[in-house]
Write a structure and sequence with these properties.
By secondary structure, the protein is mainly α. It has seven helices and two strands, in the order E-H-E-H-H-H-H-H-H. It has one domain: HUPs (Rossmann fold, 3-Layer(aba) Sandwich). It has a two-stranded parallel ribbon with strand order 1-2. Helix 1 links the parallel strand 1 and strand 2. It is globular.
Amino acid sequence: MKVISLLSSGIDSPVATHMALSKGLEVVAVHFWGEPYTDENALESFKQIVDQVASQTTKNLAIIDKAVKIPVLRPLIAFDKEDIVSAAKQINTYDISIQKGLCCGLVPKEPTTQSSLEEILEAEEKLGFDNMVKESVAELKWLNN
């Protein structure tokens, strides 16, 4: 089965991607490089490693599932942060993930813990989300081994 892994420069997503690969899934890793909002080292980190925050509440995860039209898999849902950090250290991605300037600078200082589908859709519209996706696809860079 082919899956898409949203791979950040943080600790969690490389662990989740590794788990998917170890289960025999064909993984297409997608990384959002938030330039100019993140350090240029983020792209280098992504090449090397082919955060759970307060917003990942049960309610918000359910809202996300309603907002997308494809299944969302969450292989780390039952892990606590210590388990994820331990796994990252075992697969040698931890030291890369904690480098200064690598985590996405687009994460809000105070994430919402009780969002609604209407709020999500309204925020996407304000951001011009559809155009952002089109522009991102137009500027897509494939990184092959």
